[in-house]
Every structure is written in structure tokens, then in C-alpha cells.
Protein 1
Amino acid sequence: MFGIDCGTEVTGYGVVETCDTGRQPRLVCIAMGAIRLNKKQPLCERLEQVHAELTSELLRWQPHAVAIEDVFYSVNAKSALKLGEVRGVALLAAASRGLPVAEYAPLSVKSSVVGYGLAKKEQVQFMVARLLELAELPQPADAADALAIAICHIHRAQTLALQGAAQ
Amino acid sequence: MFGIDCGTEVTGYGVVETCDTGRQPRLVCIAMGAIRLNKKQPLCERLEQVHAELTSELLRWQPHAVAIEDVFYSVNAKSALKLGEVRGVALLAAASRGLPVAEYAPLSVKSSVVGYGLAKKEQVQFMVARLLELAELPQPADAADALAIAICHIHRAQTLALQGAAQ
């Protein structure tokens, strides 16, 4: 599962897989990183960079699906348009590889990882580190958010599988 | 000059070139069209369609540059994000072909074509037809808008050339 946290300055990504050890399935962090954009570069070049780096990471880690944060409506129209441009090329990178894309609202992601929809960034980082059994807090926060989105998707899939089994 | 008018339902495009006949340079419409998106299709597929069709048209017409409408701030954040996604993949299509991209505000485009920044869609269509010596009004309006953006860029380049020659 490949999580993406889009941003106009930094776009985080993280790869999380489940590892069945016979007992309870464990979550394992495979990779994480951040694509940092230089605001002085032309917009076209920045979008090309996001698309190229995400395409390269998707090729490298060969995930089965992509999870991305859903629209955050409270930003203003100008910021939303700029964020949309980055989101567009990120979605295109996933679509070009034929990967299914799941979208989750920030509230769902935080609820799934911290248990509280209005959790702060530091709480998300702390819980991501704990769930993935990392020795240190994941850095930068954008990569931690991307890991959280991937974890949210895995939790959702596990819940749906349990519900299916119970029926 | 390849003009693009991005939209979440229809994205128009138009190709305009100048033709030097010895007297005053004429504007010639080389092509126009519209990419229509099916709202029932997943977002990823729609973005892939816009990117693929624009890439194909850019390959076909081999323009030297691309002109695109600049941000329209008065839309709400949700619409702006959706428009941004389409804009992102359109800009990526131009960037991937190494084409320079010029951005123009709707006010500049209308001023350049109609002479009035708050002109209506019909007025833009009428003036585009007149400037390009078309027998009929360009259809759909999104293609006419794309042609208007291309004309705006050519007018701007001509003005800059004249100013340079006068100095």
C-alpha cells in the first residue's frame, strides 16, 4: 500500500505492507520519503518533478494500490487550486500504472491511526511510529502523514474483511 | 500557439498561427476541439484522458508554445481543487514536451480579443470567429475560449515585438 500526502511545497509518500507471522498481522514500513519542491522553479517543472518522482517510487516498490488524502475543503480557492495541480499529477502517476486509488478524508485518517479525528501532527507521528514499530518518529511530518494514509487504508480493508467473514 | 481552456467537464483547445502574407500578418485557425469528460468515470481515468488527448494533440500540431488560462479565484475551494487537478495534468502534458507555458488571466484574454475584460462568452465567440476569419462561430464555447487564449498570447508577443522595435 502506497500512501501519498500531497502538498504544494512538500509531497510525502510512504509504503506500508502487512506481514502475516501466524499470530496477528503486523504492519511493516517498507519505505518513506518526501518530494521537496523549489518555489523558485516554474510551476510546470515542479509538477513534472512530482510526477516523475512518484512514478519512479511506484515502479520501485510495486504496490498493489494507492491511498491519497481526500479534499480538504477549508483551504481558500487559491490554495485549493495549487494543491489540486499537485494532486492531479499524483493521481495521474497512479492511474498510468493501472493502480486503484482510494481516497480518505483527513478526519478518517486521524481517526484510524490515533483514534481521534482532530489529532495533532505530533500525535499522528507518534502513533505511526508505534504502529510500525519504528525506533524513531517518522520524518518529515509529510512522510508520516503519507504512512498514516496507507495505514488507514489497510485498517479499512481489514475491517471490511472481518465484516465479510462475520456475515 | 496552442491554447488550453481547462474545465472539469470540458477542456477546450485551439491552435492558432500567424501567417505573413507580406502585408499585415493574419491569424489562422489550424485546429480546435474539446475533450469531454464523463462524470461517471473515476477521477483517475478522467485525468488520464485529459493528459492523453492533450499529449496527442501537442504531438500532432507541434506548437512552439502553450497558453493557458490563469487561476480564476472567485470559484469556491472545492471547484478550485477539481479544476486544479485538470490544470495539473494539462500543464504536465506541455512540460513533458518541453514547451514553454504562458498563463493569462480571463480579464486579459477578453480584453485582448474583445477589447473589454468583462465580455460575455458570445462576444468572445463572435470576435474569435472574426479575427480568425471563420465562416461560423467556433463551437463549443470551450474551444472558442482556447482559441481566444492563443490569440491573446500572439497579440501580447506582437505588442512586445513592436515595443522592442520602437526602443
Protein 2
Amino acid sequence: MGVDEIDVVVEHADVLQIGARNTQNYNLLRAVGQQKTKPVLLKRGMMSTMEELLMSAEYILAQGCSKVMLCERGIRTFERYTRNTFDINAIPVLKSRTHLPIIADPSHATGHWNFVESASMAAIAAGADGLMIEVHPQPEKAVSDGAQSLKPKRFSDLVSRARRVAEAVGRRV
Amino acid sequence: MGVDEIDVVVEHADVLQIGARNTQNYNLLRAVGQQKTKPVLLKRGMMSTMEELLMSAEYILAQGCSKVMLCERGIRTFERYTRNTFDINAIPVLKSRTHLPIIADPSHATGHWNFVESASMAAIAAGADGLMIEVHPQPEKAVSDGAQSLKPKRFSDLVSRARRVAEAVGRRV
Amino acid sequence: MGVDEIDVVVEHADVLQIGARNTQNYNLLRAVGQQKTKPVLLKRGMMSTMEELLMSAEYILAQGCSKVMLCERGIRTFERYTRNTFDINAIPVLKSRTHLPIIADPSHATGHWNFVESASMAAIAAGADGLMIEVHPQPEKAVSDGAQSLKPKRFSDLVSRARRVAEAVGRRV
Amino acid sequence: MGVDEIDVVVEHADVLQIGARNTQNYNLLRAVGQQKTKPVLLKRGMMSTMEELLMSAEYILAQGCSKVMLCERGIRTFERYTRNTFDINAIPVLKSRTHLPIIADPSHATGHWNFVESASMAAIAAGADGLMIEVHPQPEKAVSDGAQSLKPKRFSDLVSRARRVAEAVGRRV
């Protein structure tokens, strides 16, 4: 999404997402902050510290848009069995430093559908305020990210299980 | 623990621990594998891949010692708000590749007592077979790792909560 | 620099620079590639692989702009004595994979003026086609990056020394 | 090399090398420091900060062995075109903090023979006090590290070139 595309996205989408590669695209952050119609989901860059993520959020908030959600989607490390390393610590650490909701993206944070459920349960147990999960009826035909997409049935099971974990830590889904 | 100290440690300890800095000390791994009296807890190096951790375990197993537990204790990344980055993905990924029990060490993996509980719940929810948590009656007087140590009361609350999360994912503590 | 600012930058600048935080800002890369008046200096992201840097360059080249220079400016690692880790390997590796000129930025790659000269000599010796160095008459008053800026006299000495190293490896400054 | 093998290595070798995987094996460091016959080459761990390398050197020096050389052999990062990332900054930074000689190991730091020469020139230009390079008459038959080994002829050319670069920065090989 470029600065000149914000209007059309605002018109059609429920949430404006700033992707991991644009986390420090300050022109875009400021422009998104100038609209107050739709909430903004700001993804942590794969190369960003938590401090930088919080500073990127400030660019949006400072323009007057107060509905900002932060999204942990995994960071880049030397580990090679997974696409990214899900920084689960980010959930309690960010919650201790900001009142903004923290969303987890276990699909990107693992990169493989068969680890998405475990990572989702971990996120909820650690205190995440929401999950963002890729679902596709035929993952093997997905245009992108098929390897990390769940089929609908598996997704629905995941939601039931997430509900139980949320209750166990005193929350509700 | 050096190779020449194994006998005395076996005599007095319940478990032999190979620390993160010795994860690729092959002499020590082999020597520890030659005793079959006590189980071995092998910690992942702060910069070991999961593949390397599994290969280190092989050094012990190949000597005939079959009671080996793997421990995820956080890896080194660029993030600076935490001491290490807890690689929560390691729990389901390792479980998909080995039958060995996977233990999580949220104390080292976060480095701060106030994040230990959230990280512990995440570990259990992700499928960890056990937790290893630093507890100290007076953390501020601890010889080492005080910042990441829990007081006994807080630890006891954590165990109750862990029990509820374990049940939510169909396990028992 | 945003997409809508390209025209004015083209008018006044000698080179268009894509900064490290915009290395994967594909809208900007494409827009910059559509002008053919000025050469483009594309900086490697602080957490981009070399492969990703080459792919970002393709976004520019594919639009018809052929004057693209790649710039190694250091990557993010766990090391804390320096601002970034200068990936000197990137110079010969990139030269083996592309015909584009490779520029080194020892100011960002070290973060401290007193290491800039050594890093510059290393870059030239490794085969870099150019250096990009921050210079300031009064670094302590610089608006940004003062800690890594050289005073003019020291810069001039650096150039003389770079000339000698270049000759030693069969090149000319 | 284990603690119990030091005597036999001292008898036959010119230098005692502590490998990257043993950089924080404190028993071994202390034991090596207790002999004063042979110099010690201490390799930086692939996961060690420069500060940790200096602290590991202290373990040896504190035992009375004063002939210690530090070796930069590349650190682990997310980059995948090379085996390790050669931290060229480590050369001037370590020289600013210690009087110990700094040796570079471009073979491990790149992992590919065709980048060893450029990395070697960079190391000398940055101020390294020595190079450690793997050479094999038939690299394709090497028991280990063949991919990063030079044939003798190429090694001899490298030495000539290193001599010229050393002179260019006011030193002598």
C-alpha cells in the first residue's frame, strides 16, 4: 500500500495493515495516521526491535489516529527450520510498555501450517489480545504463503482450543 | 562441569545439566553419555540451531545413555529489551523431530522475573513437557541471575496456573 | 523520500538514495526505476540478505533504470560494541553475482568515527567500487550521526590511504 | 581438545588452539592458561560478542599464560550466501581495547575458497596481525572444510598480494 492508495483501501477494508517491510516507512505511517476512520494494524519488522516498533506506532498516533494494534509476526534469526523466530517474549514485554492491543501472527512467525496451532496457543497463553491466521480452502493452490495456511476445519478446531486456553489464563475469546 | 567432575556430580545430583556454553563440547557430551545412572538435561546453545541441538543430543545417545531431555532457553538476537529471545517455535518443531522430552527455561529465555510467568504459560500451551524456573527467597541477594528469579509465592501461583493451561491443551501437570 | 517527492529530488540531487529502511518499499523502488535521469544508490536493509538486496535492485532495473549502485552499510547482529556489523563478505559475494557497482558505507557499518578508516581500507581491499563516508566540520554539533562522522582533515588522509590500498590490489581511486 | 589432552598437544604442536565451540569452556581455558610453554590462539565463538571474547581471554591470562592471540572467524547471522559473517569491525575494535594480537580466519569467515582472498586483503587492510588460511593440495578430497580451502598456488599468490596491502597501510608481512 502506497500513500496514494490509502483512500481506496480505507473505503473497502476493515483494517489498514502496515506490513513488516513498511514498518519504518515514515511517510506511509504519517499518512495512515491522518485518517481516523479505520483502525491500523502495525506489523513489527522482521528486523525491528520492540523499541522501534513502539516508535513506529508513535508516528501514527501522533497524527491523531488512536486505534493502533501492534502485531508480532516473527523476527529474523539464524534458525533455519522455521521461516522466522516467533518472539513470544514480545507479548508480555510490549503489554508492560503500552496500552495498545497486541496481536500475534503465528502463520508468518512459524512459516509452516503444522506449527501454527501450537504457536497460537502459546500466544494466547502469553497474553495476546488477538490472532491473525492464514486460512485457505486449498493451501497447495494458494498464490502465496500456502505452506503456512490452515484449512478451514483445522482453523475452526484451533479457535475452540484457543477459547479453552484463554479461559485457563483468565480471559475470554 | 568438566569431564573429570562427572563422577562426583552423578553421586550428588538428580540430573546432569549440560549448560548452553557447553552444548558443543563434544568431549563432555561423550563422557556424560557414558554414565547411565542419571538423566541428562541438554541446553540449547544461545546460538545453536535446532539441528545442532539434535546433533549434540546424538553424541550423548550414541554412548548408550538414553535419558536425555532437551532444553530451550532462548537464543541470541538483536532484541535488547530481553536477555534472550525465547524461541517458542522450538517446542513444536523439536517435538515433530524427536521423541525426547522438551523442557523450557523461561527464566533465561526472558531474563526478567516479571515476564517469566507469561513465557511459562506459553511454553506449556505450545506443548513443553516441563519447565525449569529459577526461584530464590531473596532474589536481590542472589549470587547470580537474581533479576530473573521468582519468589516462592509467585512460583507457587505459576504452578497452579500452569496446571490450568495444561488441562486446556489436553495434558496434565 | 516518498514516491511524490521523487521529481523534486531528481531536479536537485546528483544521486537518488534508497535508505536501508526503504529497501523493500516496492512502490518506491518501482517509482524510482521509472526515472532514468539520475543514478540510484540502493542501500542494503539492516536485516536484508544479499539475495533480497539483489531482488530489490531488480524492481528498479525492471522499470528501465539501469544505473543502480548497491551499498553495503552493515547488518544487525547481537554484537554491541558497534552500531552494525559491516558484512565485508558482501563485497566479493555481490561482485560474483552482479555487474552493478558495490559501494561501502563504513560510517553506518561501524557507527564510530575512530573505526571508519580501518573499515574503509578493508572495503577497498575487498574490492569495493566506492566509499560513502560521513564528514562534518564539527561532528559534536551534527544534527544526526555525529558519532560516526569524520572531520575534513581526517577524511582527506583517509582518501590518500585508500589510494595506496587500491593500488596494492591493482585498482585506482 | 579436552583438559586431559593438553600435555600431549603441548608436546607436539606449535600453538594451542581453542576452537569456536570451546570459547566459553572455562575449565579448558583455565587449564590451557596453566601451561606457559606454547602460545594460545583463542577463536571467537560464532555466538560470542567481542566483550565475551575478551573475557574468555582473561581466563587464560589470569592463570599466568601471557601469549594469547585472538582470532576473528566469523559470527552467525541470518545471511545465507556465506557460512558465517566476517565481522571485520572486530579487528579495529579489539585492537582499541587490548594489546593482544588479532588474527583473522577468512576461510571460516566466508566458507568458500573463492571469497578467501578478498576477505584476507580486507583483514590485512583493517589492521589484522595475522591470517589463518586453510590450504589443501586437493580440496575436493579434504576430510573437512574442503569448500573453503585454497590450493597451494593460489595461497602463494595471496601471500604476495597481502604483502602489498600491508605495505600500503604502513605495515610489513
